[in-house]
Design goal:
The protein has nine helices and nine strands. By secondary structure, it is an alpha/beta fold. The strands form three sheets. It has a four-stranded mixed sheet, with helices on both faces. Strands 7-6-9 form a three-stranded antiparallel sheet, with no helix packed on it. Helix 1 runs antiparallel to helix 7. The radius of gyration is 38 Å and the shape is rod-shaped.
């Protein structure tokens, strides 16, 4: 425990805790949920509920992961909120007839609006088709261009889920470029991330304050045991937290008189044993070789010998040298006589 009572160790531990907190934050960022990463990188509002939009995903071919379906639903939730538009997704292992006719018929069947679209994928052939309504903001040529740019390469490689997410990301960029962020234009899209950051910072500060308080308590306990009653201690207790200093209640509540000496009688031995090494410290050394000797030549003027935690006495001139042997945890200083 003595190691933690040193100021340098306390400061080092504080720095280590800060570095650890930063490292944890970086690790959490690196292992973040893919849905949340998509939301942050595309300016989506991840606080919106996606439950109502899962019905617009019909993955009969089973090529979409749960995370990909959640990402698609989050895109649709944001598009409906901002632009009153969505894109349904249907995957099939086989399709009878032309895929474009199938897509339009399916769109009518599930009652899509004029500003909506439906993406149909035939996994057996790799064919993909995005059928859009008459009021959809993209032209046919733009739809074909986006399909070529974002989806077809992954579809040919059998990575249908990745391709769909890339296509939706591209379409979202088109929406933002053309119409802005809608109700998020004033910057509220980052509200959740800012809130998370604030909460993380507050939690980090609380943890650091608790650790600093524990270290201050350990250091102060050692300081009080050594220097309580010393008129001029060799140094002033300097806490990590300023409100633990001598002018504040934390310090004053702890600076109490030591308990009176154990009374004589049958309880004396029990009291000594109970407090020995604690309130009654430091204890005597059983081996004189473990003790420390402090020496000082006596000058022409009187000097005071101060044994920290015990008291002081004055030495008159004429003595060649003064040696004091004490416990290794007790300090001795020599000063010009006060009297």
């Amino acid at each position: 425990m003595k190691l933690f009572q040193k100021t340098s160790v306390a400061v080092a531990l504080t720095i280590i805790m800060i570095a650890a907190a930063i490292g944890i934050g970086q690790w959490r960022a690196a292992s973040a949920d893919p849905v949340e990463e998509t939301a942050q990188s595309t300016g989506l509002d991840s606080s919106l509920s996606t439950a109502a939009y899962t019905k617009w995903i019909d993955d009969q071919a089973d090529v979409l992961t749960d995370q990909q379906e959640e990402q698609i639903a989050l895109f649709n939730a944001n598009w409906v909120k901002r632009y009153d538009s969505l894109i349904a997704v249907a995957t099939r292992t086989s399709i009878d007839g032309k895929i474009d006719d199938y897509a339009y018929d399916l769109g009518v069947q599930i009652e899509l609006a004029a500003a909506d679209g439906i993406l149909v994928i035939n996994t057996s052939t790799g064919d993909c088709y995005l059928a859009v309504g008459s009021d959809y903001p993209m032209t046919d040529s733009q739809v074909s261009s986006y399909m070529d740019q974002y989806l077809y390469e992954d579809a040919m490689a059998g990575k249908f889920g990745d391709g769909v997410v890339k296509l939706f990301t591209g379409v979202n960029e088109f929406y933002v470029d053309q119409y802005g962020l809608g109700y998020l234009s004033k910057g509220s899209s980052s509200y959740n991330s800012r809130t998370d950051t604030i909460i993380s910072v507050i939690a980090l500060v609380v943890i650091l304050v608790v650790i600093a308080s524990i270290l201050d308590s350990l250091r102060y306990t050692s300081y009080r045991q050594r220097y309580y009653g010393v008129v001029n201690p060799p140094y002033v207790f300097r806490p990590i937290l300023f409100w633990h200093g001598p002018g504040y209640g934390w310090y004053q509540r702890r600076w109490r008189r030591p308990p009176p000496p154990p009374p004589g009688g049958k309880n004396a031995d029990a009291l000594w044993q109970k407090h020995l090494g604690g309130l009654l410290s430091p204890t005597l050394d059983s081996d004189p070789k473990q003790m420390v000797t402090y020496s000082c030549p006596v000058r022409k003027t009187k000097i005071d010998v101060v044994i920290h935690g015990l008291g002081w006495f004055c030495i008159s001139p004429g003595i060649s040298e003064v040696s004091v042997r004490v416990n290794k945890d007790v300090n001795v200083t020599f000063r010009k006589a006060m009297i």
